[in-house]
Amino acid sequence: MKKFKTSYVGFINPKYVPNLDKEFLVIYHVEPAAGHSFETVAEAIAGESSIGTWTHLETLSESTKEKLKPHVYEVDKKRKFIKIAYPLALSEIGNLPQLLSFLGGNIFSMKIVERLRLEDIAFPKKYINSCLGPYHGIAGIRKIMNIKNRALVGSIIKPKVGLSVDETAAVAYETWRGGVDVIKDDENLTSMLFNNFYERVDKLIATRKKVEKETGEKKVFVFNITAPYDIALERARYVKRKGGRVVMVDIVAMGWSAVQALRKQNLGLILHGHRAGHSMFTKDSTQGMSMLILAKLARLAGIDQLHTGTVVGKMEGTAHEVDTLNDFLREDAGEIDYLRENWSKLKPVMPIASGGLHPGLAAELIKILGRNLIINFGGGIHGHPDGSFAGAVAARDAVEAASLGVDLQIYAKNRPELKTALEYWSEVKN
Ligand code: CAP
Ligand code: MG
């Protein structure tokens, strides 16, 4: 009888020269479980995610193996990473759920793997172009908003849940009039007993039209359509029919299947991606998947504007991390230099800074992240001691001053709302 063999062998080849035209180049952070060598685990990861399993297979022909075999072309035990080149043919182009089962699937459950993190993926052009990407992108958003140079000023209605439709509209009216461009639902407000989605759409679009007439500025409301896909689509269509311009999807909760399907509808709506819950798998630097990959998938799937963090706010994220994400979304860079890739035909995505922001943080934020950004203030507008209108005036003033590079304290001298905001939140660094 033949002697037992595993099929988790033959993938490591440090001499292999990867080819981004035909292969995905993937980086994993790897920590083997006790008793297993780094090489054994690298072989198992490459095998399990492609043509292998725990045993030799009589069903796997040499020709299939040659065609589909991945190559582990770098193994760095000290820095705990491996790089694998996977043939494009291991994926179904344009199918993001398949990509996750392929590169983020069973390998995460193997006993011999103690810690595993999908750090970065460089995509072949053919794969990138098989996805639709953003409908509007940055240029399209700026055109709709009629804002050329400054950062866009956004606000989340707060409290995030609890207000009725009429209360929401009243807060939105004050906030838009105060100078905010983009007002949005919060991530966990959908269609509730106290605030029905369809009534909210009717009322908020009417309010938006009124404010646009009064101010002469373009405004948008971002309606959260997060729900099972059929319901989300029905809600998106309703927003479109009623003259709305933006819908929000909680991308982690809804998943890529839904985002891709929604984008495919070509409704012409701006798709706002909220990433609530991403830290379940992105926060631990040795386990899960990086936020950069989430951002890449969002861009492939067709998100136009995406939450990426603030550095100075209440949420996790260093300047380097957030900057890398934003550079990727706005331009064509990847996390690691040799993974720089051309994002081909896909439009760039507008990053959104949100979480614990107040007017006093605007200058630092723009200094770190630039002006090609939506800056979202929730508590930092609706917590202003003189109310949402004053909060909105202060936020708009702060973003304008910061976009011009003018010192906020000087700008605030004859702007009482900004002055109050700077004083009130002076202690809050978040
Ligand atoms: C901000 C926010 C946003 C988070 C998202 C909130 O409110 O509405 O959802 O900032 O985080 O619910 O916390 P505040 P991220 O302005 O009142 O903090 O952009 O990091 O995904
Ligand atoms: Mg929120």
Task: Give a short synopsis of this structure.
The protein is an alpha/beta fold and 430 residues long.
Descriptive account of the structure:
This protein is α/β, with parallel strands linked by helices and 430 residues long. Residues 332-341 have low confidence and may be disordered. The strands form two sheets. It has an eight-stranded parallel β-barrel, surrounded by seven helices. A five-stranded mixed sheet has the order 2-3-1-4-10. The chain is 39% helix and 16% strand. It has two domains: 23-129, RuBisCO large subunit, N-terminal domain (Alpha-Beta Plaits, 2-Layer Sandwich), CATH 3.30.70.150; 137-424, Ribulose bisphosphate carboxylase, large subunit, C-terminal domain (TIM Barrel, Alpha-Beta Barrel). Helix 13 crosses helix 15 and helix 15 (388-404) crosses helix 17 (416-424). It binds 2-carboxyarabinitol-1,5-diphosphate and magnesium ion. The site of 2-carboxyarabinitol-1,5-diphosphate has 18 residues, from helix 14. Magnesium ion is lined by residues 156, 160, 186-187.
Radius of gyration: 24 Å
Bound molecules: 2-carboxyarabinitol-1,5-diphosphate, magnesium ion
The rounded distance between the terminal residues' Cα atoms is: 67 Å
By DSSP (H or I, 4+ residues per run), the number of helices equals 17
Instruction: Give the overall silhouette.
Output: elongated
CATH class of the largest domain: Alpha Beta
Tell me the name of the CATH homologous superfamily of the largest domain: Ribulose bisphosphate carboxylase, large subunit, C-terminal domain
Secondary-structure class: alpha/beta
SSE series: EHHEEHEHHEHEHEHEHEHEHEHEHEHHHH
State the share of residues found in helices, binned by percent. 25-40%
Provide the domain count: 2
Low-confidence stretches are 332-341
> Roughly what fraction of the amino acids lie in strands?
15-25%
CATH architectural arrangement of the largest domain? Alpha-Beta Barrel
CATH topology of the largest domain: TIM Barrel
Number of strands: 13
The mean pLDDT is 94
Please list the strands of the largest sheet in the order they lie side by side. 5-6-7-8-9-11-12-13
Instruction: Please describe the biggest sheet, giving its number of strands, its sense, and whether it closes into a barrel.
Output: 8 strands, parallel, barrel
